[in-house]
UniProtKB/TrEMBL annotation:
Name used for this protein in its record: Sarcosine oxidase subunit gamma family protein
Organism in which the protein naturally occurs: Pseudonocardia tropica
Classification via Gene3D superfamilies: Heterotetrameric sarcosine oxidase, Probable tRNA modification gtpase trme, domain 1
Record Pfam families: SoxG (PF04268)
Length: 222
């Protein structure tokens, strides 16, 4: 029996507030909930016979440097360990998915490809304040010198386990950073609440926002 996919996104209730951060911070910070990606956790020996076929199918070489990632079509291939990668796509009908990768690694010792599409939600955080915001809840040095584009990390953000990717800063219109945060779906709401709370530091006038100042709320007037 095929399980039905959920009809709602874990961050549906948070999406308006997250989108409003760009306005509330004068354009210094943006948070976008990306479309649900197709994700496959891939295991194989990078020196084994299946490697060449996997690279050809993905259209890029698997990244073998620790804590790095590479673009692959409309998604990414993220290094998770010496023999483990996360392969993502923004399209649910990507040409390279679980079936293709599984066929390529079947029969190889330790080879596996498992669909983990429902496991994580992706938030794209951009703007000149992006790295500073994330530094409030992450112990890593997120300065561009230490965490440049092309780097990734499995770390904690707001006490939540995440996969963090540094993207090309040129993708951001105001010249700031662009970082993707992969978080487990069950913790996505918690992380969204943390981001909104941490971003109060950057609001032009947080007291003027009824959501953050009870005294300013018409419902509490009088």
């Amino acid at each position: 029996m095929t399980a039905e996919l959920p009809t709602t996104h874990p961050l549906d209730a948070h999406a308006p507030a997250l989108a409003g951060l760009a306005r509330d911070t004068g354009g210094g910070l943006s948070v976008e909930v990306l479309p649900t990606a197709q994700s496959v956790t891939l295991r194989l020996d990078p020196a084994g016979p299946a490697r060449a076929g996997v690279d050809a199918a993905l259209g890029t070489a698997l990244p073998t440097g620790a804590n790095t990632w590479v673009a692959a079509g409309d998604g990414e291939v993220v290094w998770l360990g010496p023999d483990e990668w996360l392969v993502t796509s923004r399209s649910p009908n990507a040409a390279v998915g679980e079936a293709v990768l599984r066929a390529l690694v079947t029969g190889e010792a330790g080879g596996a490809a498992v669909d983990t599409s429902a496991q994580r939600v992706v938030l794209r955080i951009g703007g000149r304040l992006a790295r500073e915001l994330l530094s409030f809840g992450c112990s890593l040095d997120l300065h561009p010198r230490s965490f440049p584009a092309g780097r990734s990390a499995q770390t904690l953000l707001g006490r939540t386990a995440v996969i963090l990717l540094a993207r090309d800063a040129a993708a951001d219109s105001d010249g700031g950073a662009v970082l993707d945060v992969h978080v487990r779906s069950s913790f996505a709401g918690h992380l969204a609440d943390w981001l909104l709370d941490a971003a109060l530091e950057f609001r032009a006038d947080p007291a003027a926002d009824p959501a953050t100042d009870p005294a300013a709320s018409p419902a509490r007037a009088g």
